[in-house]
């Protein structure tokens, strides 16, 4: 399918052929008929993307501080690589569209194939021939008389409706609208439908005239004339409410609103404007200044938008979905004039012209700019760049032929750059639910094809090794399916989210038709400094005392990693790394785990924990995983004591080895190496040589069980014992040893 993408480094607009998106649970697949280009929002995005690095830095000092912190912690080369990786990722543009449903997830019961719908949401209602949209980000178009061109305005219409509701406008109120672009014109019409007297202001005369044509009771293109108009229409009192729908970094609209509003009136910022408020002006009138957030309650709530958990109508009357439905009813009842707002139409293959228009000297002429799509377009889940047979056969029998599931930031920024440095790897197919992500990975790293269906990768006979780099809730099923198809599997941590999934993986591994490698991305044990540290402590002939401190940093409670069903929480998703590393240094499996957590005031997700580990050889370990520190401080520190010797590893850039009164120091000033290249070199060598997995199957199981035990112990405040052999014997049957 064709999709409009924008490069983050230079703002270039591209119309790219990508696989159609995968139909996800809780979603519907829509054949898009029309999508709306937001002249304000998308122009601002394009202007930022076109800035050079220095200009971007001046615009976003918060990001500059993050980069500086990363340079201090990880080294200049690592920081530069991270920045380049982010800038290489194109942005999918668009957030308002309309079309016909062509497929529905099994858990959706109130939408059917053939329904006409309006769609919302950045990342969902994108400028593309097909879109996968969560249920609560779409609304049925209620009447056949409503054309797709008009329904494509629904998201912006919902923004206007929510702004009006935020202002608490009452029947008969006099309301001013400052900024008469598309959002302002819709706001004017909706206010008139609600029975308000409406006064409008825009510096462009043609827009003021259009608002009069669409029902405004008075307009002006001059701030002073507008002030006079507002007081004349209200007998000197001022308007009841002002809706600011302008787009400007200046604070002029906010302070103009304060001038024209009556005593104790309401001012609502709907558009993106400066908010340097003149306090005296607002104080003396005791004005109520409010900010309207997007299209209504539910916006930015992942439980609502992604999981479909609606708010009860008795408690939240107007959610973003119900605002969309209300706007569509107004369209069906012909209460809004949309034809006067549609100024330009471009077919998808000419979409660049739409962005030239809204960013060019004639941008003032653009209001409703639509992109239209070919009704005959067919969904395609796989696009081939290079003939697969030719690519695979040319590399010889010893090649490791890779199929990648998941093409997110970690896969494209960390895993694939490491893989590309190793000879003997052939990148065959890449799959992501989002077609633009798989296409970016394919073109950037040289995959033969890109796809959006897992089975196309897993069942491809030319692929002998699957890399699982999707979200955590998908890992277990994809690992099992890959093992069942006879593939080697590299799964980025965590391997799975619970013991039931782990048992399924163990059974699949044991039942595989022939020995295949199962590797989990516990990369730290392969870091050069870690290998050197391990060699040092291996010479100690007594149990070790190990301490691992992680300054993990805060992430919001609603981050997907903290979702127990999708991410599993930070212990399962991240602490598994550190349990594996201590087991690696101890040379022994954990047999008991005890977890304590700091009291939680509601800000954290129970991710400030102290974990004690007992190992089979008598070694003892502690892990302090903390989200309450300052990210500017070092992230990881490992200390090992034993045999009158000490080893300290700081952020994988400084290693101190102390023995017999002598200290040896190893430093890496410019780059941090956490072992991603080393783990891939070991994995590829094992496949090509027919050797054992770089991490034994029993070790992977033991680390994963210990991670689950850490979660259980945190809940019960009791130590939890681990018996890897008993787990395997009870669930998976006789174990097939790799040794």
Describe the structure.
This protein is an alpha/beta fold and 739 residues long. The chain is 35% helix and 24% strand. Helix 16 (409-420) links the parallel strand 18 (400-405) and strand 19 (425-431). The radius of gyration is 29 Å and the shape is globular. The chain starts with a strand and ends in an 8-residue tail after the last helix. Residues 734-739 have low confidence and may be disordered.
On the 0 to 100 scale, the average pLDDT is 90
Strand content: 15-25%
Main sheet attributes: strand count, strand direction, barrel closure: 9 strands, mixed
**In order across it, which strands form the biggest sheet?**
31-30-29-28-24-27-26-25-32
Give the strand tally. 32
Give the termini separation: 49 Å
Low-confidence parts lasting 5 or more residues at pLDDT below 50? 734-739
Return Rg in Å.
Answer: 29 Å
User: Can you tell me the overall shape?
Assistant: globular
Secondary structure class reads alpha/beta
| Share in helix | 25-40%
Individual helix count: 25
Topology:
Layout: E1 2-6, E2 13-17, E3 27-37, H1 41-50, H2 53-59, H3 61-74, H4 76-87, E4 91-92, E5 96-104, E6 116-120, E7 130-134, E8 138-140, H5 148-151, H6 154-166, E9 174-178, H7 182-193, E10 197-201, H8 205-213, E11 218-220, H9 223-233, E12 239-244, H10 252-260, E13 261-269, H11 279-285, E14 288-291, H12 302-305, H13 320-332, E15 342-347, H14 351-359, E16 368-372, E17 382-384, H15 388-393, E18 400-405, H16 409-420, E19 425-431, H17 435-445, E20 449-451, H18 454-458, E21 465-468, H19 475-484, E22 488-491, H20 499-511, E23 518-520, H21 528-537, E24 545-551, H22 570-586, E25 590-597, E26 609-615, E27 620-626, E28 636-642, E29 645-650, E30 654-659, E31 662-667, H23 676-689, H24 697-716, E32 720-721, H25 724-731
Parallel strand pairs: 9-10, 9-12, 10-11, 12-13, 13-14, 15-16, 18-19, 18-21, 19-20, 21-22, 22-23, 24-27
Antiparallel strand pairs: 1-2, 1-4, 3-5, 3-7, 3-16, 5-6, 6-8, 17-20, 24-28, 25-26, 25-32, 26-27, 28-29, 29-30, 30-31
């Amino acid at each position: 399918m064709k999709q409009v993408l924008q490069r983050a480094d230079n703002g270039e607009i591209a119309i790219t052929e990508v696989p159609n998106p995968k139909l996800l649970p809780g979603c519907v697949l829509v054949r898009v008929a029309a999508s709306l280009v937001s002249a304000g929002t998308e122009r601002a995005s394009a202007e930022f993307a076109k800035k050079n690095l220095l200009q971007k830095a001046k615009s976003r000092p918060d990001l500059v501080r993050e980069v500086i912190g990363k340079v201090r912690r990880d080294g200049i080369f690592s920081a530069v690589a991270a920045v380049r990786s982010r800038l290489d990722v194109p942005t999918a543009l668009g957030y308002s569209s309309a079309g016909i449903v062509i497929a529905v997830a099994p858990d959706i019961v109130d939408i059917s194939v053939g329904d006409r719908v309006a769609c919302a949401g950045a990342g969902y209602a994108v400028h593309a021939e097909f879109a996968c949209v969560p249920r609560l980000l779409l609304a049925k178009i209620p009447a056949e008389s409503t054309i797709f061109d008009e329904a494509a305005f629904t998201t912006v219409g919902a923004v206007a409706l929510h702004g009006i509701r935020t202002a608490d406008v009452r029947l008969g109120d006099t309301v001013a609208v400052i900024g008469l672009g598309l959002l302002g014109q819709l706001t004017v019409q909706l206010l008139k439908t609600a029975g308000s007297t409406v006064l409008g202001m825009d510096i462009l005369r043609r827009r003021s005239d259009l608002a009069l044509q669409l029902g405004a009771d008075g307009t002006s293109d001059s701030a002073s004339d507008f002030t006079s108009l507002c007081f004349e229409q209200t007998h000197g009192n001022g308007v009841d409410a002002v809706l600011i729908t302008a787009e400007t970094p200046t604070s002029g609209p906010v302070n103009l609103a304060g001038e024209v509003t009556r005593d104790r009136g309401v001012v609502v910022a709907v558009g993106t404007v400066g908010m340097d408020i003149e306090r005296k002006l607002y104080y003396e009138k005791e004005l109520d200044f409010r900010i309207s957030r997007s299209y209504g309650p539910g916006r930015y709530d992942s439980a609502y938008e992604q999981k479909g958990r609606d708010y009860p109508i008795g408690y939240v009357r107007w959610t973003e979905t119900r605002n969309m439905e209300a706007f569509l009813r107004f369209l069906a009842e012909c209460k809004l004039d949309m034809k006067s707002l549609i100024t330009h139409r471009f077919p998808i293959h000419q979409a660049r012209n739409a962005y030239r228009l809204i960013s060019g000297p004639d941008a003032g002429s653009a209001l409703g700019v639509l992109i239209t799509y070919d009704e005959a377009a067919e969904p395609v889940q796989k696009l081939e760049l290079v003939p697969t047979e030719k690519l695979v056969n040319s590399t010889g029998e010893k090649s490791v032929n890779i199929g990648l599931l998941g093409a997110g930031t970690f896969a494209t920024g960390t895993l694939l750059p490491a893989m590309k440095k190793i000879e003997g790897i052939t990148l065959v197919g890449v799959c992501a639910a989002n077609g633009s992500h798989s296409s970016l990975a394919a073109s950037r790293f040289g995959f033969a094809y890109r796809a959006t269906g897992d089975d196309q990768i897993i069942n491809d006979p030319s692929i002998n090794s699957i890399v699982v780099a999707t979200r955590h809730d998908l890992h277990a099923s994809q690992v099992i399916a890959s093992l069942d198809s006879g593939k080697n599997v590299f799964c980025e941590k965590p391997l799975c989210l619970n013991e039931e999934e782990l048992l399924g993986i163990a059974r699949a591994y044991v039942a595989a038709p022939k020995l295949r490698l199962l590797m989990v991305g516990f990369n730290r044990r392969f870091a050069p400094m870690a290998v050197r540290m391990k060699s040092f402590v291996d010479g100690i002939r007594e149990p070790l005392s190990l301490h691992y401190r992680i300054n993990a940093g805060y992430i919001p409670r609603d981050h997907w990693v903290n979702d127990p069903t999708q991410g599993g929480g930070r212990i399962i998703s991240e602490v598994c790394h550190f349990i594996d590393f201590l087991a690696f240094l101890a040379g022994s499996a954990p047999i008991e785990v005890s977890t304590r957590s700091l009291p939680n005031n509601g800000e954290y997700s129970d991710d400030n924990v102290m974990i004690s580990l007992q190992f089979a050889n008598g070694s003892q370990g502690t892990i302090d995983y903390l989200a309450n520190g300052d990210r500017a401080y070092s992230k990881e520190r490992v200390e090992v004591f034993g045999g009158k010797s000490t080893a300290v590893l700081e952020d994988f850039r400084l290693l101190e080895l102390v023995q017999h009164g002598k200290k040896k120091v190893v430093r890496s000033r410019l780059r941090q190496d956490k072992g991603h290249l080393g783990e891939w070199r070991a994995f590829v060598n094992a496949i090509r040589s027919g050797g054992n997995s770089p991490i034994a199957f029993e070790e992977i199981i033991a680390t994963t069980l210990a991670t689950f035990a850490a979660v259980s112990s945190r809940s019960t405040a009791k130590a939890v014992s681990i018996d890897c052999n008993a787990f395997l014997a009870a669930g998976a049957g006789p174990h097939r040893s790799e040794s």
